[in-house]
Amino acid sequence: DVMDASGVALVLIGPGSVEQARTFSEQTKFKGEVYADPNHSSYEALSFVSGVLVTFTPKAGLKIIQSYMEGYRQDWKLSFERDTVSRGGWQQGGIIVAGPGKSNISYIHRDKEAGDDPDIQDILKACCS
User: Fold this and answer.
1) Per-residue pLDDT at 84
2) Prior bond to 118 cis, omega within 30?
3) Would you tell me how many other CB atoms lie within 10 Å of the CB of residue 29?
4) Do 97 and 104 touch, CB atoms closer than 8 A?
5) What is the rounded CA–CA span in Å between residue 63 and residue 54?
6) What is the mean pLDDT of the chain?
């Protein structure tokens, strides 16, 4: 609501296929824009980390348990499709607050490992103040 009131668009970029992005949107009922980056070019350009060792950590395990207890269920089949297993399933992401314009980045958080979520207040301050 805060982002909407500030005229900020939330855009997701996933490391999988266009079909996976479409399925994600349908399953989560996400109303914003969702893009697929099957070649990981945006992740590489932003130096986001990837790998088994940053995916399966104690922090990530706790996050999975917490999310499960809150009712969230990940579609593991969707996350680990044949074309995604080699890279996408291990890709960590981040959050960027950018714009207006092409080179105005006011906030960036690169996940160090799975479950490395930034403070939402920091994000809202960067995009909506």
Assistant:
1) 52
2) no
3) 6
4) no
5) 13
6) 82
Q: List Cβ neighbours of 32 (8 Å cut-off, separation of 6 or more).
A: 9, 10, 11, 12
pTM over 0.85: no
CA 56, CA 97: separation in Å to the nearest integer?
27
pLDDT at 81: 56
Q: Per the structure block, which two tokens stand in for 49? A: 């980390």
Identify the band that residue 93 occupies on the pLDDT scale cut at 50, 70 and 90: confident
d(CA 108, CA 10): 14
Strands, DSSP E only, in the chain?
11-14, 33-36, 94-98, 105-110
